[in-house]
Automatic annotation (TrEMBL):
It is a single-pass type I membrane protein. It is found in: Membrane. Residues 1-17 form the signal peptide. This is Protein FAM187B. Coiled coil: none annotated. Belongs to the FAM187 family. It comes from the Eukaryota. Keywords: Glycoprotein, Membrane, Signal, Transmembrane, Transmembrane helix. One of its GO terms (cellular component) is membrane. The keyword Glycosyltransferase does not apply. SUPFAM superfamilies: Immunoglobulin.
Length: 238
């Protein structure tokens, strides 16, 4: 009886709590993500070496002893609770120093998330031009809507919108990869989350394959007027 339980606790967190970011072999992929939500950067090389350089331009350093970063057995990199300060270039190379894959990741700050509900008439952020040397456009690039959180009855669904900056005639970039540590005081530089009502039919195959979990519930203390709640295995990406 112990073995299946042990397997369950080992395999589910990686399957359910994290999203996998992929990029083609020898490619460089740029991506905006939300801080505080676990991700795995794929690199299929068991002896992979991962280097990181932040947007502040310091020399790349080997990622071997950063507390919230772990190399998985297949070579991919697992980031638990990544922080905005971990925005930068993640470079994966093989044992012969040849590039396997690179990711330029912008971990946009979850604590300044701009949340709106469509059904309540709340408006997402508007496009805005900023003057940073030249004129640049700040806008939100929306992800597709995620699945409805209920089926067969009214529910809600959400989508994420990342902060992007575009120079005239240039390809848009995630805001903090564009800014590279430059200090700007604009309240438009935020990531968005939009919510709307949905009604989705039930797909029984899908529903019955979802695991469920039981957790203890503790009453909130009278003395704490501010508390950080974490939902185990939850992720903003689904
Ligand atoms: C905001 O800017 C983006 C990027 O240029 C563009 O695709 C979008 O249509 C703009 N939205 C509005 C409302 O002008």
């Amino acid at each position: 009886m112990l073995t299946p339980l042990w397997l369950l606790s080992l395999s589910l967190p990686t399957l359910w709590a994290e999203i996998l970011i992929r990029c083609s072999y020898k490619g460089l992929c740029q991506q905006a993500l939300v801080s505080g939500n676990d991700v795995v950067l794929q690199c299929d090389h068991p002896k992979a070496l991962w280097y990181f350089s932040s947007i502040l331009g310091e020399d790349p350093f080997l990622l071997s002893s950063v507390p919230n970063i772990k190399k998985l057995p297949g070579g991919s990199l697992q980031l638990t609770n990544p922080q905005p300060s971990q925005t930068g270039l993640y470079h994966c190379q093989d044992s012969g120093n040849a590039l396997v894959v690179e990711y330029e990741i912008d971990f946009q700050d979850v604590s300044t998330l701009h949340v709106t509900h469509r059904g309540l008439g709340q408006k997402p952020l508007q496009n805005e031009t900023l003057s940073l040397g030249g004129r640049v456009l700040v806008f939100t690039r929306w992800e597709p809507w995620q699945d409805c959180n209920r089926c067969g009855e009214p529910g809600e669904r959400k989508r994420l919108g990342y902060c992007y900056i575009e120079e005239p005639q240039e390809k848009a970039m995630p805001c903090w990869l564009y800014l590279r540590g430059e200090k700007t005081h604009s309240s438009r530089l935020r990531t968005e989350l939009q919510v709307e009502a949905c009604l989705a039919p039930c797909d029984h195959v899908k529903e019955t394959n979802q695991p469920y979990f039981i957790f203890d519930i503790y009453p909130l203390g009278k003395l704490t007027n501010n508390m950080w709640l974490t939902c185990p295995l939850a992720s903003i990406y689904r």
